[in-house]
Automatic annotation (TrEMBL):
It is found in: Membrane. The keyword Ribosomal protein does not apply. It comes from the Eukaryota. Its main location: membrane. Residues 1-29 are annotated as: Disordered. InterPro entries: AA_transpt_TM (IPR013057). This is Amino acid transporter transmembrane domain-containing protein. The chain crosses the membrane at residues 49-72, 78-98, 119-137, 157-174, 181-207, 219-243, 255-277, 297-318, 339-360, 366-393, 413-434. GO terms for molecular function: L-amino acid transmembrane transporter activity. Residues 43-432 form the Amino acid transporter transmembrane domain. It comes from Cyphellophora europaea (strain CBS 101466) (Phialophora europaea). Residues 1-11 have a biased composition (Basic and acidic residues).
Length: 452
């Protein structure tokens, strides 16, 4: 198992798909051969990988989509959700191809090392950890809302967050993703069932409301609404880590197809039904617009999803550090066997990531806005823009530079547009997020740190 990341470039067939034998892949990938390992990482089937992808992506972000339709109208809103789903599928497939060409890649930082050396590696690694910790904190707040709703707000909100943080930490402690994949089945069932309950509740309390097919809006409010569906697909930063623990990484595209078909379908149906029945006054999260008994039922069923999604994010942040520390041959026994040092470091990393998420969620009054900034800075690239850079990089090195771009000019233009789309989402998202913070301070909406 190599401890370094060399600039390797796999071969392709005539259609541009990576080739190579399974033995070639396992000889060079991050975990190497695990025949004699006590702790085996490469155990995920593509079905379980797709379950993990669904659990971490289709979560609390779904609850903000109906409010987006209320801003831009149902037709452009649904078209946007569907388009972004297709776009996210394309970038998923590009990420899978890049991973298959470079088996040594375990996370976005490793990909940065191949494309741009140590500096880009540290930037993309830091972005992965920051976004994962912020996403964990966002799930803690979702758990806080659910618990406070279920208990009629009888306790301080910070206490609810702390209560929810404990099981999130414990579930994060699993060393391998195959254990988390079994729990993620519950997460997938939970968020789907919660959505069905929410739609049933909306239909039970209201007749279809007058809705507008499209609404005029200025750039600020329109893009503010657009950010909800954009970041509801944000989860690609975990894909390299997930694929690294698959028994057959070549099947990862099946998982990507399953994820995007499920996510796009659920998003469109949930957003449309909730908006049609609850109208322009629908809240974000959408369950908060339901009567108490329906809201409690929906939040209660969704709780496992919030918990497991938060655990996956914290696990991802810890796993990046853990693998980087112990992937070298001289240290790999701590990665593949039950050693005191290995478990101590793993537990400490998981605790650190969860603690950081908790402190940020309850101690920073503008945390919700910081999550938006983190999503703009990192998710815009990891989910969309960076896929274009991956394709352009591999095409350049695998097909003699400009010759590849001339011969495959259509794909070249598509991936340049993908890169520019990530750049636009990043810049516009940052503008919106900063303006939201300024407006929040101006209106006095910013609370105190560690307050109820």
């Amino acid at each position: 198992m190599s401890g370094s990341l060399e600039r390797k470039h796999g071969s392709e067939d005539d259609e541009g798909h990576p080739t190579g034998t399974s033995d070639d892949y396992h000889d060079t990938d991050v975990f190497g051969r695990e025949d004699n390992a006590t702790i085996k990482y490469k155990t995920l089937s593509w079905q379980m990988c797709s379950v993990l992808m669904i659990a971490e992506i289709v979560s609390n972000g779904m609850l903000s989509l109906p409010a987006a339709l209320a801003v831009v109208g149902i037709v452009p809103g649904l078209l946007l959700i569907a388009f972004l789903g297709i776009f996210a599928l394309y970038t998923s497939l590009v990420l899978v191809d890049f991973k298959l060409r470079h088996p040594e890649v375990h996370n976005m930082g490793d990909a940065g090392m191949i494309m741009g050396g140590p500096v880009l590696r540290e930037i993309l690694s830091a972005g992965t950890v920051i976004f994962a910790v912020f996403a964990t904190g966002s799930q803690l707040l979702a758990g806080q809302i659910a618990l406070s709703t279920l208990s009629d707000n009888k306790l301080c909100l910070m206490i609810y967050t702390g209560i929810f943080a404990v099981p999130t930490f414990l579930v994060s402690l699993f060393r391998t993703l195959d254990h988390l994949s079994l729990l993620s089945v519950l997460a997938c069932i939970g968020i789907l069932a919660a959505g069905i309950v929410g739609m049933a509740g909306a239909g039970a309390i209201s007749s279809p409301q007058p809705i507008e097919t499209a609404k005029p809006s200025d750039f600020y409010h329109a893009f503010l609404a657009i950010t909800n569906p954009v970041f509801s697909y944000a989860g690609h930063f975990m894909f390299f880590i997930l694929i690294s623990e698959m028994s057959q990484p070549k099947d990862a595209k099946k998982a990507a197809w399953t994820l995007q078909i499920f996510a796009t379908t659920v998003y469109c149906v949930f957003a449309a039904v909730m908006y049609v029945y609850l109208g322009d006054g629908i809240a974000s999260p959408a369950f908060s617009s339901l009567p108490s008994h329906w809201s409690k039922a929906a939040y209660g069923i969704a709780l496992p999803n919030f918990l497991i999604a938060g655990s996956l994010y914290a696990h991802t942040a810890a796993k990046l550090f853990f693998v980087r520390l112990f992937r070298r041959p001289a240290r790999s026994r701590h990665l593949h066997h039950h050693t005191l040092l290995g478990w101590a470091v793993w537990a400490a990393l998981v605790l650190l990531m969860n603690a950081a998420a908790f402190v940020l969620a309850v101690g920073v009054p503008i945390f919700a806005y910081l999550v938006s900034i983190a999503a703009s800075l990192f998710a815009s690239w990891y989910t969309y823009g960076i896929a274009g850079a991956f394709w352009l990089f591999d095409a350049w090195h695998d097909h003699a530079g400009w010759v590849a771009y001339r011969q495959r000019w259509g794909m070249c233009l598509l991936n340049c547009a993908t890169f520019l789309a990530g750049f636009f989402i990043c810049v516009a998202g940052m503008y919106i997020s900063i303006k939201l913070i300024v407006d929040a301070y101006s209106s006095g909406a910013v609370g105190e740190p560690f307050s109820c």
